[in-house]
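User: Please run a holo structure prediction.
Assistant: Happy to. Please share the sequence and the ligand.
User: Here you go; the ligand is NAP.
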Amino acid sequence: MNEVNRQWLLNSRPSGMVSEAHFKYLETDVPEPILADGEYLVRNLYLSFEPAMRGWMDDEPSYLPPVELGQVMRSTAVAQIVRSENPDFPEGQLVQGMFGWQDYALGSGRDDMFPANLIPEGVPPTLPLTIMGGTSLTAYFGLLHIGKPTPGETVLVSGAAGATGSVAAQIAKLKGCRVIGIAGGPTKCQWLLDELKLDHVIDYKNEEIGDRLSALCPEGINVFFDNVGGRTLEAGIDHIAQFGRIVLCGAISEYNNASPAPGPNNLMNLVKFSVRMEGFIMINYMDKIDQAFADLGQWLADGKLKWKEDIQQGFDHIPATFLRLFNGANEGKQLLKLADPR
Ligand SMILES: NC(=O)c1ccc[n+]([C@@H]2O[C@H](COP(=O)([O-])OP(=O)(O)OC[C@H]3O[C@@H](n4cnc5c(N)ncnc54)[C@H](OP(=O)(O)O)[C@@H]3O)[C@@H](O)[C@H]2O)c1
């Protein structure tokens, strides 16, 4: 075991683009689990990076409280239990939880806000953070419970080469839809065509989204699964079909704006074409998680879902790895490896 617990703390709140300077490195003692509190000590193996973490850095009301200044940066991780005073969390087991940007963290099994889950024996450690993790559940719930695509409909997915978008696009294909993906750059777009078998792609860094949608969707878009917001959302609303559904999953193009961007200027289309636009948070659908895992697990077993893991290395590299989400450097689900299980 390391002598110290390395940590990255939130040092200041960004106004605009997040940078490495907003985090501060610290070394502290490795904490001891307390018997009376049923605590266990974990060693982090893989950290997971989510665009939503940028929002947790702001002192604003949201579905989770902000990370306080001076606190360890919050993040999901897969870890191994290295010492335990809790029989439900035995030593040696892998566990997924909100363990943060540090080597070691304490759990107690009593954290209602971020309950930790034991990972069954034999499951690869990255799987609960990638294709069988929160981004896939988000894609599943958003697309199927809000978008409700039917066979033959046209589905547009932005952020389509990312962890969430790539699964939303594949589920739409599995449901018999014609799927158009928007992503940045030729490499990501080619992967969407060659590997995920999308019907069309739009490279928003090199093409005008509106022009391409006019050419590709003369009948309009039936379902728009939007991860990007801003001008991308506006372009989708411009081409929405009658009775279309717009799933607001995220708005990554806006997370680093110092002040809110002007809203879409074409919301009257929702009225004119009887369109429903609905935002959601994945945790709203926890009562449906068993069915979601059953379906995702079946598609995975049948070889019908593909995914990419972008695994960075090194504790020093944690803040820089987070920034990759916002410049599009990540190819697939962004992770960072800290250690192998023992
Ligand atoms: N509602 C929920 O419960 C929930 C849960 C999880 C995630 N989400 C949302 O889902 C979206 C995707 O998250 P993820 O974890 O799957 O990340 P991801 O898509 O794997 O990675 C982020 C991607 O966003 C794209 N991007 C970054 N800045 C952009 C910009 N200014 N304009 C357009 N695209 C930009 C980049 O792809 P390109 O190279 O293609 O630009 C980047 O690779 C985010 O909006 C996130 O907040 C929502």
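Residues 50-52, 135, 138, 159, 161-165, 183-185, 188, 227-228, 249-253, 280-282, 325-326, 328, 330, 333 surround NAP (CB under 6 Å).
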